[in-house]
Design brief:
Blueprint: H1 9-22, E1 29-32, E2 39-40, E3 47-55, E4 66-74, E5 92-98, E6 102-107, E7 112-118, E8 123-128, E9 139-141, H2 152-163, E10 174-175, H3 181-191, E11 194-197, H4 212-225, E12 229-231, E13 251-254, H5 256-267, H6 269-276
Parallel strand pairs: 1-3, 9-10, 9-11
Antiparallel strand pairs: 1-2, 3-4, 4-5, 5-6, 6-7, 7-8, 11-13, 12-13
Helix pairs in contact: 2-5, 2-6
The chain binds 2,6-di-O-phosphono-beta-D-fructofuranose.
Length: about 290
């Protein structure tokens, strides 16, 4: 696509299907991962929509869960500013996962409900009302192959998870990495967890990989509405506004205690040093 990501056939098809459907409803401006620029639609309409038509598309060939993410914003007077609003301006956000079940996760700003597609009846049925993410979790998700490129706070956090009961976290963690944001978010909504796609030192990854407008903003709204947190490590995702449509952003989201710990490590270099120094490790010289 225009931003250099490899487009699959299904990315293009999903984009076309969603745009066709959305052309039948009053939308003032539409942005898609697959379009270079936002499109202005019905200037009288009250809402703007940003979509990632097919998230996780590198998973298509291996038959893993993929999905569609959407963010619904109020239409500003100047539609050129439609997708430069703070994440907290979102009116609604959601995603659909195409996995063993087809599920719709939806927030209208008052909690998160999860629906399952009833194919026979042709409708979504409420499967879980007011989904809540546990405050503390025992599962983390990160692409660990990038470890050598991470900043020290991210390394320190993952080291704490790996240290389990023998480290400051004082409990063991399991690890999962699906490589599909919608699947990771669904798992976190189901059984808690923390997901990290941080910035790293690879060329082009200075702001991570995920997109602010149609990935991080809607996910952050959903996760916060379910009692979790979402941050870049230094700033709350919903406080950010995009400078450009396809802007990337580091995303750390999930159970609030673990997200807070990642933030603490980003804000306090001494804490990072103490986690990294073997002398201060639980079984080290200064601790028994
Ligand atoms: P994909 O490129 O397959 O669409 O949205 C980008 C995304 O998938 C996320 O769904 C996923 O979390 C991430 O990229 C995976 O990135 P890595 O391959 O770098 O792990």
């Amino acid at each position: 696509n225009s931003d250099g990501d490899v487009q699959r056939d299904l990315d293009v098809q999903a984009d076309a299907i969603l745009r066709r459907c959305l052309s039948k409803v009053p939308v003032a401006a539409l942005a898609s991962e697959e379009m270079r620029e936002a499109q202005i639609g019905d200037r009288e309409a009250k809402i703007c929509i940003a979509i990632d038509p097919l998230d996780g598309s590198s998973n298509i060939d291996i038959n893993m869960t993929v999905g569609t993410i959407f963010s619904i914003l109020p239409a500003p007077d100047d539609l050129a500013l439609a997708f430069h609003q703070r994440g907290s301006a979102q009116l609604a956000a959601g995603f659909v996962t195409y996995g063993p079940q087809t599920s719709l996760v939806l927030t209208l700003g008052e909690g998160v409900d999860i629906f399952t597609l009833d194919r026979k009846a042709g409708c979504f049925r409420l499967a879980r009302a007011a989904a809540q993410i546990a405050e503390t979790c025992e599962e983390f998700a990160i692409n660990a192959s990038n470890r050598r490129h991470w900043d020290s706070p991210v390394r320190a956090f993952v080291d704490e998870c790996l240290a389990g009961v023998e480290g400051p976290a004082n409990h063991n963690f399991n690890m999962r990495w699906v490589g599909s944001l919608v699947a990771e978010a669904y798992r976190i909504l189901t059984r808690g967890g923390v997901f990290l796609y941080p910035s790293d030192a690879r060329p082009g990854y200075g702001d991570g990989r995920l997109r602010l407008v149609y990935e991080a903003h809607p996910m952050a709204m959903i996760i916060e509405q379910a009692g979790g947190s979402a941050t870049t490590g230094r700033e709350r995702i919903l406080d950010l506004s995009a400078q450009s449509l396809h802007q990337r952003v580091p995303l750390i989201m999930g159970s609030s205690n673990e997200v807070r710990r990642v933030e603490e490590l980003h804000c306090d270099p001494l804490l990072v040093a103490s986690v990294s120094a073997p002398l201060f490790a639980r079984r080290g010289f200064f601790r028994l």
